[in-house]
Every structure is written in structure tokens, then in C-alpha cells.
Write the C-alpha cells for this entry.
Amino acid sequence: MRLTILTLHLVVALAAGAFVVVLGVTGGIMAFEPELDHVLHRDLWYVTPRSTTKTLEELGAAASASQSGERVNGYLLSTSPNLAYQVLFRGRSVFVDQYTGRVIGVRASGPDFLSRVHQLHLRLLIQNKADSGKTIVKWTGVALLYLLASGLYLWWPLKRGAIRSARGTRRWWFDLHNAAGIWSVVFVGLATLTGLAIGFDDELIPVLYKVTRSAPVVMYARVPPFTVKPAGAAIGPDRAVAIARATLPSATPISVNMPPPTGVYGISARYPEDLTPGGRSRIFVDQYSGAVLLAEGSRTAPAGSRLITLNRALHTGDVLGLPSKIVMSLASFAVVLQLISGVIMWMRKP
């Protein structure tokens, strides 16, 4: 039995190893995706905080003037006082200093380094109707789960958790393989299981809602098909945000979608304790009457929705902030170390 498990461990590692390495490297980077974006585009992001900010309409007007009067599609509001707001147009976003109204710069919506890393992690940059990239990724997760389980079984008799052999020898790589594996197994296992939950979300999400006897409202569906009839002058984005703040008083608005003539304002918000940077609270406001058509805060979301949010926060490391992000990033890179050391051992087999 042990020989069979060892053989399968080797075969699965060699077959899925390249994909596992891709997930490990990209996962380690993605744990700090927002922070890395701020560093890589420092000239766009950082502003000097002041006592008052401009209105969204003023920021939108300044950004629109820089884009030949083009219509504003939405706004992204930063939650940190030293990070700039964004005004959204078709195919690009304009960074503006919310305190002075100064246009800082423009970034196209096309793929950059971090977005490519993100898509590589999600679906190997494969874009097709069958979503075959996502299929490969989730079954790579299944392979990784087997490698973790079989690796733990194979480790158990010797229980080696330290490196004692001479550097560079096959035994040294064996010790490194064992030590890296056992010290990271809990966190790699957590990342793998939560990743599988995301990969098989079409099958899992209905089960979660059924088990918790709850039902999704807004948070994991497309924008509800609200339509309104034009009736007088529309309220502006600042008034819509004020209504959203009053509806969910402790939640901070982080984005505003500007509606077409028969549409409604869609505003996303984030509570201080929310486990993901994007938050999971939504408010929909009639652009003419200012009536709140639907609101759902993460604090009162259905149990199934809260479990989905928790799963994603565990996977990305957002659950406890910086400490857990560091741990999950290191766990991702530990997977890469496992594959490298395993392949070297195989190549040096006696």
C-alpha cells in the first residue's frame, strides 16, 4: 500500500506539477495584489490628505473635461485617506485627487501585470466559452489535495521536520521536502480546500444555501433588473451616496455606478470588519425619487452568503489582515518549493 501511494504521489506530482507551480507563484503574489498595485503605480495612487474633499460631481466634471467631455460611468472611492479616487469611463479610469480635484493620470482597463497574474491563477489566461482554464485549475486543486494527503501519509513514519543533512545532497533535498511540507501543510490545505470551493462554486453554492436554509438576495447575482421612469431631474451621485450612508450607517461606500436614464444607482459599501477589500454590501437607489429599492449589508446577509465571503477571505488571507496574508503567501510559495525539491529528488534517485 505504501509503495502504491508513493508511486501515485510521484505520478500525480509529475503530471500536475507545472500547474501547481503556476498556482503557487500566482497565489503568493495575489495575496498582496492591492498593495503591489499601489507600489507599481505609485504615481497614480498616492495623494496628500487634507481636511475636506471635493464632491463626486466636481471630481467627475474635472475627469470628464480631461476626457473630451465623455460621460462618467462610475466612481471608485478609496477607504484610505492617502489613496486617490477613480472616475470610470469606458475602457479606462481617471485617477483624481479627491482633495484638490486635480487629475493625476489615466489607466486603461486592459490587462497589466497584476491582472494577468490574477487571470493566470483563475483560469491560466485561457478565455473561451467552455471556461476550460478554470476546469484545469480546479482539477489541479484536486491533484494538490491528493499530494497533501498522500504526502502526510508518507511523512508519518519518519516524522522529519528539520534539515539535518549536508547541503546539496539528495538527503538534504529530502529533508527540505519534508520540512517545507509539514510546516506548511495546514495552510496549504486550507488554501487548497477554499480554492476548490471557489472552483466548484456552481455545484457548491446551491448546497450551501440549502444547508443553511437561506437564499441569496443581491450579493452573488447580477444587478437586479430595476428600471425606473424618468420623472424630473435626477439626483446626483453625492446625494445617492448620502442615501446609501443613511441606509447602512456604519458601512463606507466604495463604488458608485452611474445609471442610464431608466436605470438606478448601484452603490457598493464596506463595513470595517468586512473580510474582503471589496466589501459585500449593496444599495440600489432610484435616481429620480431617491428611494432605496433594495439594500443588503454584509452584517445581515443570508448565512450562505456569509459562508461564501468567509471562504474567499480564508483563501486570499484577508481574514485576519496582514498577518494572515503573509502566512497564505508563504504557504503558496511553499508549494513551489515542494515541487522543486520533489523533482530534484526524483532526478537524483539512486
Notes: The two ends are 22 Å apart (CA to CA). The domain at 237-301 is CATH 3.10.450 (Nuclear Transport Factor 2; Chain: A,). The longest helix spans residues 170-199.
